[in-house]
Amino acid sequence: MKTSIEIGTDAAGQDVRIDVQELLATRLLVQGNSGSGKSHLLRRILEESAALVQQIVIDPEGDFVTLADAFSHVVINGGDYDEREIAAMGARIREHRASIVLSLESLDIEAQMTCAAAFLNALFDAPREHWFPALVVVDEAQMFAPSASGDVSDTVRRASLSAMTNLMCRGRKRGLAGAIATQRLAKLAKNVAAEASNFLMGRTFLDIDMARAADLLGMERRQAEAIRDLERGHFLGLGPAISRRPLAIRIGATRTATRMGTHSLMPLPVADGADMRSMLFAEEEAPAAPRAVAVEPEPEPVAAGELLERIAASEPLHADAAAPPVLDIVEAAAEAEEADAVVIATLQAMLDDPDSGFQSEAMLFQDFSVRCRMAKLRKVPLDLAAFRRRFALAKGGVFDPSEPRWRGALAVADRLPDDMVAPFLQIARAAMEGAPCPDDEALGRAYGSRSPGRIRRLIDYMEKQGAIVVRADFGGRRSIGIPELGLSTEAE
């Protein structure tokens, strides 16, 4: 059986091949700055080896979902499923040897790391009889195996790093061969990078990354400058699956491409200074009444059970099927109204938990998504950004922002940072109802902090922005006024 694939040509124009059988035993590390052609290289390897080995792609940016258009890959949108469902899919994938792309583009970084960790652990923990060979490609690996702590919690970072370490250090005996790509070696955990025996180094500019790349390639430090001079799509390769000596490689063309394409220059609009100024500073006109048009709805998320069945049958997600009927505009409006009612009820139920204000946005959004599916909505009605805004409004007591009575308060809140919207709206609501000023504990729950000092700084900041005015009487009772509304809370 033929086990080598062609990935490009060398300086003499000769074909350069990778031995896939050897690659499975010795793993691969790809490094290159953004724009150096890492994703193109991975796509070339995936396309050429698609008929030889099962492929599992961890795709944080959704770049590789187009593989399903030309090959039998199943696309899994990680944002549509919970941790238990993702783990079940990981186990089923190993059993049925299905090639898949796990797209994480709809998740924030912490949720991406949590989802990837659950998925990789399920692959790793598969029973021995399912230890078939599989090439596991992880793009932007520095996100999942960071060398230092970042903005994510230590618990999430440790779980993700442990899963990546298992893949690269212990995965070989279980048939899992890691092929990881990173923008910077300095950002990738050394325990993960050190387990690769094959290297493809693309263009990089920082001295520390060039020095590490030169060390891995067995080059002298003075030769490291060559890495800075590499063109886009050109790599230096070394390893038992590629070449015993550093080899310059120009990566060949691919049959598929990313959905986004590449950005290129385009002509600027033709307008003189006066016309451009009039367009920029023109008063906003009232929007024209929207025309009632029928729109094709977005594809619904595939239920976990159905996706598991497709994996078992090795059936691509994008199988030909009849297009869903176009919704009548009246039915679409009724569905939107039902979804909004579910959103309001779900937010109210979530806020019944007194600790909800102190949980991470990723966990809250996952909880929200599960509740919406339990309410039998065809798709989650809010993405993460929209959910973050609606949840902040709900913490401030505004469950339906379309109500006219909230218009003035929301206009003031729009000038404040997102994390201050909820405490401000609590104050505004008390002022509108003539109720006592919320105490520091209530404002802390809305702000997501139990620190009295942070609450005092929060109030000071809002006062400096002109959003509120704080008054204290001789008895130490506090009231807060909102100048733009002409209202004030009762003293408390």
From TrEMBL:
Top-level division of the source organism's lineage: Bacteria
What Pfam families does this protein's entry cite? DUF87
AAA+ ATPase domain location is: 24-191
Q: Which InterPro entries match?
A: AAA+_ATPase, ATPase_Atu1862_pred, HerA-like, HerA_central, P-loop_NTPase
Q: Which Gene3D superfamilies match?
A: P-loop containing nucleotide triphosphate hydrolases
Name of the protein in question: ATPase
Give the source lineage, highest ranks first: Bacteria, Pseudomonadati, Pseudomonadota, Alphaproteobacteria, Sphingomonadales
